Amino acid sequence: MENLQNLAQVQSVSTWALAIFSLVMIVIGIYSTKKARTVEGFLLGGRNIGPWISAFAYGTTYFSAVIFIGYAGQHGWNIGFASMWIGIGNAILGCLAAWLLLAKRTRRMTRSLGAKTMPEFFEARFGSTSMKIYSAIIIFIFLVPYSSAVYKGLGSLFYTIFPEVDIAVWMGVAAALTALYLVFGGYVATAYTDFVQGLIMIAGVVIMCIAVVNNPQAGGMQSAVSKIRELGAQAGNYNLTSFFGGDKWKFLAYNIMLTSFGTWGLPQMVTKYYAVKDERSIKQATIISTVFALVIGMGAYFVGSLGRIFVKVAEDGMPVGGYDMVVPQVLINSLGSDGNLFTTIVLAIIMLLLLSASMSTLSSIVLTSSSAISVDLIPTVYPKFKDKHQMIVMRILCFVFVLLSYLFALANISFIVNLMSFSWGVVSGCFIGPCIWGLYSKKTTQKGAWAGLISGIAVVGILTAIHTISSGSFAFAMSMAPQSGVSAMAVSIAIVPLVSKFTKDVPVGATSAAFNINKEA
Q: Where on the phi/psi map is residue 236: left (φ > 0), alpha (ψ -120 to 50), or beta?
C-alpha cells in the first residue's frame, strides 16, 4: 500500500511538472512565429542568435535522453566511473575543439556562399548539384533512426514512472509537443526553448548527482565507490573503479572518439554555427557550451556508474530490465520510493531534464531533415518551387519526419545506444571529411569531396556486413557500431585530400567565392 501511495505522489507531481513545461514550450513556439516567416528565419533565426542561446542550442542538441538512458546506463554498468571520460571527451573534443576549429570558418563561409544548410554548402563550395541531392537523401534517411533512438530513451523513463501507460503513448506525447512548437516558430522557437531546457538540464543534473550519491543506499561518495568496487568484484568485473577503465580502455576510446568527433560532421550540430550573429558571440559560446557539456556529460555517466547499487543483477550478469532501464530504475529507487515530497519534486525535475534533452535534440534533427527535402531536394528537382511553398512544405515535413521517427521507434530494437551509434557513424562518416577540408583547403576537389561522402556509408556498410557474416549475428554487428563509425570518420578525413591530390580542382568561381571572405562577413 505504501509503495502504491509513493507511486501516486510521484505521478501527481510529475504530471503537474509536465503540464507546466508543455505550456511554456507552446507559448515560446507561438511567440516565435513572427520571426519564422522566411526560409532563412525559419532555419537559422535570421542568422542573429546570441552567444548564450547559440551555446545552449548546441549543447542541448548534443545531449539527448540517449546519453542518460542508453550510453550512461550501459557504459556506466560495464565500465564504471571511467565512463565519465566520455563526458570529458565530449566537452573538450566535441565542444571546445569543434567551436575553435569550425565555428568561425563555417559562419564566414556559409554567409559568403549564401548557404542555409549543409547540402547547400556542399553545392556552393564544390560546384555540384548532385552532391546537394545526395547529401539531402543521406540526412533524411539516416537521421530517422537517430531520432527514434531519442524517443526510445525518453519513453523508457516515462514508462518507469507511469507503468500503467504504454511506452508508445509517452513517445507520442514527446513527438506531438516537439512538432507543435517547432512548426510554429522554427529555429527561433527551438533556440529559445533550448535555452530554457538547458537551464533545466544543468539544474537537474546537479540535483540528480547530489541526491543519488547521498541516498542511504549509496551512503555518500566514499561508501558508493567502495560498494561499486565490491559489487564489481562479485561479478568478476574489476574495471568499475579503474581510472582508465581497465581492459575496457579500447572500447572506451572508441566511444569517446565517436561521440566527440562525430559532432564535427553532424549537420544538426554544424548548422548551429551558421546562425551565430557575430564572431564575438562565437568566443563566448565556445566557453559556455564547453562548461555545459562538462556538467551534463560527467553527471550523466556518474549516475550511470552507480547503477549496480540500485538495480538488481539478472542471472546472466545483465541489469534486470536491460541496460536501457538502468538509469530510470536508479532514479525511481533512489528518489521515488520513500514518499518524501522533496525527493519526489527532485525526480520530477529530472524527468523534465530528460524530456528537455530529448526535445531539443529532436527539434534540431527534425529541422535539419525537413530542410533537406524542402530546401535542398525539391527546389533542385523542381526549379519553379517558390519560397512561400517552401515554408508550407517545410512545416508539413516537420510533422512527417516526426511521425516516421515515431513509427521507427516502435520497432523492437534491442539497445538504443547501438541504434544511435550506427546512424551517428554513417552521417558523420559521410560529411566530416568534405566539411573540414572544404573549410580549410582550397585544393579540395569535387571528386575528393565525393570520395568522402561515399566512403562514410561504404565503410559502415562493409564493416557491418563483415561483422554479421563472421559472427552470424546482426546484433553483434550493431554492438560494433562505435568502431565502424570511428573507422568511417577516419577514412573520410583521410580520403578527401588523397583523392583531391590526383584530381582536377572544382570550378574556380566556386572556390573563389568560398574563400573570398571578409572578417565580419
A: left
